[in-house]
Write a structure and sequence with these properties.
The chain is α/β, with parallel strands linked by helices and about 270 residues long. The protein has a single domain, classed as L-arginine/glycine Amidinotransferase, Chain A (5-stranded Propeller), CATH 3.75.10.10. The protein contains 6 helices and 15 strands. The structure holds citrulline (CIR).
Length: about 270
Amino acid sequence: MPNQSIRFTHALCRRPARSVTQGLREVDRGAPDPDLFDAEHMTYVAALRDAGMMVTLLEPQEAFPDSCFIEDPALCLKGVAIVLRPGASTRAGEAAQLKPVLEGIFPEVWDLPGQGAVDGGDILCSDEEVMVGLSARTDRAGVAALRPLVEALGYRVRIVETPPDILHFKTEVSLLDPDTVLASRKLAATGCLQGYRVIETAPGEAAAANAIRVNDRVLLSAGHSRTAERLDRAGYRVVELPMTQAALLDGGLSCLSLRFSLPGPGAGLA
Ligand code: CIR
């Protein structure tokens, strides 16, 4: 279906736990403030609802400090939810916790077979292609396990290398249109985005590349005004959201939701 990669009826989010202070981070710039994280998360959820999505907000999970980054343990495509295997040991159990929730929503839930790890943050989907970035969290065995599942759903798979100092592939790239991406210069320079029209983030604003296109708008992390201007000039409706606390844990807009479309009003979701 045209534009299925940018049009969504539903989203699944998980409230940040108080234990979010223990969340993983490459560089410790201080622990996030759980109250401020929660407030920014609520603003994010409201923005998804404003964009026309029905959002289910799951309870916090204290045992998993990074579980608000709900994009990583699953992939939702064409009415199917695929339960992934997150690459960080402290996050491995998030997938099993999420599976029953997905089973209550999706007509089909598939487990990633085989071996290896795949994080949802390494997967960028356009209408016809699933790009998977190899990273510290996603390995070749995981991608080999994922490939037949997404091919069975009609997608072609492109495997790319995420530069070593970027956590997830989508940390520095997002889809703006089925054939257009927003990317940092560093990621674009690898050549892995060949075939897509690339809008680069402004110098010094690489973090803005973790954006999400939802329906008629692009949600962008606040504080990246020159990138916002670039998108505005390119004709996109931009909504800026505070992401200061997620950023302390190397997270951003895409990581905080699973976005998908289901037929029917609400399809069983609250
Ligand atoms: C982690 O290191 O797993 C979390 N602190 C951040 C996850 C961000 N998720 C994403 O980019 N998809």
